[in-house]
User: Fold this.
Amino acid sequence: MEFKTKLSSAVQQNDTLLCVGLDPVRDNLPDHLKNHGNAFFTFNKAIIDATADLICAFKPNSAFYEAEGADGISQLHDTCRYITDNHPHIPIILDFKRADIGSTNQAYSKFAFDYLGVDAITVHPYLGRDAIQPFLDYKDKGIMILVRTSNPGSGEFQNLEVDGVKLYLKVAKAVQDSWNANQNCQLVIGATYPEELAEIRKLVGDDMIFLVPGIGAQGGQTDLLRGGFTKNGDGLIISSSRETIYASGGENFADAARAKATELRDQINSYR
Amino acid sequence: MEFKTKLSSAVQQNDTLLCVGLDPVRDNLPDHLKNHGNAFFTFNKAIIDATADLICAFKPNSAFYEAEGADGISQLHDTCRYITDNHPHIPIILDFKRADIGSTNQAYSKFAFDYLGVDAITVHPYLGRDAIQPFLDYKDKGIMILVRTSNPGSGEFQNLEVDGVKLYLKVAKAVQDSWNANQNCQLVIGATYPEELAEIRKLVGDDMIFLVPGIGAQGGQTDLLRGGFTKNGDGLIISSSRETIYASGGENFADAARAKATELRDQINSYR
Assistant:
């Protein structure tokens, strides 16, 4: 199914714009799982089952699996497969922030879409559209381009002015005007930059969906994201990782994640 | 050993600036290896042994291993380990073009430096220095920042002018002036942009090393790279992937790769 259709259906079915980031780090896992053989997959399964009816997407970040090598990648595969098998209506966003030349991006596409079977990916804009084209050619997948990242120093290049327009706005406009021919592009904008989020919404209108990471541990606040909603009160995928998955470090971690996800979902809905 | 020391020693010992890209694609492998269980590792071992005395670095691109999932990552691991064990004086550059927020980059560092044990990595500049800092903190590793990429449309953002200066020059200058506090940064500049290569050499002087991919299949020509050398006739790592590793599609692929690498090494040396 097309990513946008799947997303929209999950948003409606679960009445939510919340996304949970599946970013396991061995040291942060509950003690009883730390030395478990399939620790990441076991941890993820519990989080997934506890939150699947509260969220509109799961977002595993590839880095945390790569840190464990081939075994980590295998657990990322099992995690994606588990979601597809058990919660088939929930789209998976692979947060892997790739971009290389075209022929190399074909290989990355195989990893994301064939091996893992995810519905959407995040990509860097720096190489330009021609390099990204192999991703864009997947009409049914979501291609989420980094526009304004959530880190404190993201302005170093992103705020540089080109003909009086900041680079991140140039990127947003290029995606809307040229990269989005297949209507499968989304923009990534950090929750830590709520003013820029509102500015980009104004710039590109209501047709584009934004992935918004950075609430919680990174300091982004849900009440400041209002300016990013479309007129219908949607258009955002608001992602929480550490705050939700590590809500408790004990054996009740899944219940605690569910409580935190419920709180965040309701909080976000109250502002829509 | 520090990346720069290891590289400089390999450059001198083998009298070469050539780097071989280990980018296996199943369809391009010789027929007798296509269905081999450890096809990538078997292929790489032969290429590595056939070229190790002709090159100054090996550069596996992570994408091609990821395309085969966990098994591919396992073969990337075995490839890196094989180089370290059998050709310990040759540095390994992991071409993975990553960049995320700081805490995520720590996970990518674990993949590159702990799991694979490589000497250098390639990274995207878009997020800015604060995000890249966890990489930069590895003082003995090479951190190679994308400045001007080899793809035909790389100018889309890289050529935008900020105060009359093109973005890729802004990136090069920022790396030199601020990111390079540990003297462990290099710049990535496509061989398909020889004028820009010369321009960046003039801008940053002779202290920085450039990784130059894009000769051969992508159209970059070694004779046009002269402007990139330092006064001593070095300062470049010139990478060949497809042209060398697929020089023959037959059982003699390793001999053919050796012949091509010899030709390229000598060609490059004739211009130094």
Remarks:
- The beta strands of chain B are 18-22, 57-60, 93-98, 120-123, 142-148, 161-162, 165-166, 185-189, 210-213, 236-240.
- Chain B touches chain A through 58 residues (CB under 8 Å).
- Chain B has a mean pLDDT of 97.
